[in-house]
Amino acid sequence: MNFTVIPAIDLRAGNVVRLRQGDYSQQTSYRVDPLRLAQDYAAAGASWLHVVDLDGARDGSLANFRLIEALAGTALQVQAGGGVRSEDDVQRLLDAGVARVVLGSVAIRQPLQTMQWLQRLGADRLCIALDTRQQDGHWRLPSEGWTQSEAPTLDELAPRYADAGAVHVLCTDIHRDGMLAGPNISLYTYLRQLVPGLQIQASGGVRDVADLHALRDCGVAGAVLGRSLLEGRLDLTAALKC
């Protein structure tokens, strides 16, 4: 299996930002143009870009749609999510040039509907986001930009999506997100054993090339990089060599 390094751009009100552990009150803003940043990532050799509409994730709308559409017009293949709640939302992003739509809250709250979309739209065009937080001994799956608790767990939903024909799953350890504390290798090792057929994208905590090697060695299909790139702690060209 190939290992793909995917730089990320998180958007809030059209600006590039990062949150700590998904907390909207703990935001770091970066004075960089999103389109220029995407072009820089492409120039460094990236082929994919992960885009999160943070406004949409919390409010249930495609708040940064025009900017996502512009990013999809760059040389990068764009994987985008945040605020996708209906099949019309999915189709709107695909029509705008997004290569793969990320389904988070809707995939947790309405799995049967989401599984129908996998069949109708094609599993390679959708990515199921099972972002998780350990609580009470279970890997919980919060929604609405990680602000709302939900009943299903990672152990319950991941196998259901594997059986339904999903291909791509994004899994963020929320406690590690934006913290530069290293990825949760044990979580991804466990998830790989739970659903060996899925292509898992790991997100949260990556600091350096050593972390990328550890993720690759545990068998995930790729890693999403945010803060480490934005703050110059990790060189994208070096990361891509993984």
Automatic annotation (TrEMBL):
Natural source organism: Tahibacter aquaticus
Alphabetical list of SUPFAM superfamilies matching this protein: Ribulose-phoshate binding barrel
UniProt cross-references to HAMAP family, sorted A to Z: HisA
GO cellular component, one term: cytoplasm
Record: active site: D10, D131
Keywords associated with the record: Amino-acid biosynthesis, Cytoplasm, Histidine biosynthesis, Isomerase
A UniProt-annotated Pfam family: His_biosynth
Protein name: 1-(5-phosphoribosyl)-5-[(5-phosphoribosylamino)methylideneamino] imidazole-4-carboxamide isomerase
